[in-house]
């Protein structure tokens, strides 16, 4: 069945989103990625879209729908950080992170849900973060936007659960991507000490959980938060 499903991953040109797109391709799905720059991995359809712009997203969806068919699995992955302590955080630092991480998810999932409702089948997978539930000094904007995705998925589950649509959150810990490469070496070493697994994860370790959530085996899981964090959040 999975081979016939159409997947859209936002921010699929690099990092975790790229690894997720690669996994779906390997499992035989028809895969599209949104990218502001660059291209998705081999075997994917790349469509241009900034997730803060509904018109661009609508055009991207139309392109995916006309090329591959209606989107049945959507992975809201695109995200940014603008870290600083609360007293130094500007309104723009706050608003831009929320507009991308939470607003982007709203725009993408709203658009995707139309086709899912028609098909009476869908998988909505939101990429949150361990810091959404654990909190993180210097990340009031980011952690708030990521915590909000839990309420989002649970409300969506209540709205659309009876229509064959599931909505779940994946909460990665520290994953080796450009986002964590920006952290100073001492900070990375400090974080590793607090992770029971003693290491960061590869993007592929997140991707495997996402493809599993899209599979028929996960049909009865909805409103869940699945941590992929080496024990950092102790299951939260
Ligand atoms: P990267 O910084 O490596 O990649 C971010 C991706 O999001 C890029 O493809 C980027 O596109 C895209 N993106 C950012 N803003 C927008 C926008 N406005 N419109 C469209 N695309 C956008 O991040 P990661 O791969 O590390 O992170 C992916 C997701 O996982 C994020 O939501 C992040 O918060 C989350 N996460 C990451 C963790 C980590 O340790 N790395 C831990 C927990 C969660 P472009 O190339 O054009 O900038």
TrEMBL record:
Keyword Nucleus among UniProt keywords: no
Pfam families assigned to the protein according to its UniProt record, in alphabetical order: adh_short_C2 (PF13561)
Residue span, Ketoreductase domain: 5-178
Enzyme Commission number(s) of this protein: 1.1.1.100
InterPro entries in the record: KR_dom (IPR057326), NAD(P)-bd_dom_sf (IPR036291), SDR (IPR050259), SDR_fam (IPR002347)
Gene Ontology MF terms: 3-oxoacyl-[acyl-carrier-protein] reductase (NADPH) activity
Entry keywords, A to Z: Oxidoreductase
Alphabetical list of NCBIfam families matching this protein: PRK12826.1-2 (NF009466)
Entry's family note: Belongs to the short-chain dehydrogenases/reductases (SDR) family.
Name of the protein in question: 3-oxoacyl-ACP reductase FabG
Species assigned in the record: Microbacterium rhizosphaerae
Gene that specifies this protein: fabG
């Amino acid at each position: 069945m999975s081979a016939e499903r159409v997947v859209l991953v936002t921010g699929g040109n690099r990092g975790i989103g790229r690894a997720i797109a690669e996994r779906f391709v390997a499992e035989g799905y028809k895969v599209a990625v949104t990218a502001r720059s660059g291209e998705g991995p081999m075997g994917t359809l790349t469509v241009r879209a900034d997730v803060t712009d509904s018109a661009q997203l609508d055009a991207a969806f139309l392109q995916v729908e006309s090329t591959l068919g209606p989107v049945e699995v959507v992975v809201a992955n695109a995200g940014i950080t603008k870290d600083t302590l609360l007293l130094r955080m500007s309104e723009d630092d706050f608003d831009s992170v929320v507009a991308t991480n939470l607003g982007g998810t709203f725009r993408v999932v709203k658009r995707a849900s139309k086709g899912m409702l028609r098909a009476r089948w869908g998988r909505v997978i939101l990429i949150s973060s361990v810091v959404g539930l654990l909190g993180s000094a210097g990340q009031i904007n980011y952690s708030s936007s990521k915590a909000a995705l839990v309420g989002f998925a649970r409300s969506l589950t209540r709205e659309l659960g009876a229509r064959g649509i599931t909505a779940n959150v994946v909460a990665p810990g520290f994953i080796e991507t450009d986002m964590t490469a920006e952290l100073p070496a001492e900070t990375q070493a400090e974080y590793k000490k607090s992770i029971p697994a003693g290491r960061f994860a590869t993007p592929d370790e997140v991707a495997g959980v996402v493809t599993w959530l899209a599979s028929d085996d996960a049909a009865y899981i909805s409103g869940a938060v699945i941590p992929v964090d080496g024990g950092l959040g102790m299951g939260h």
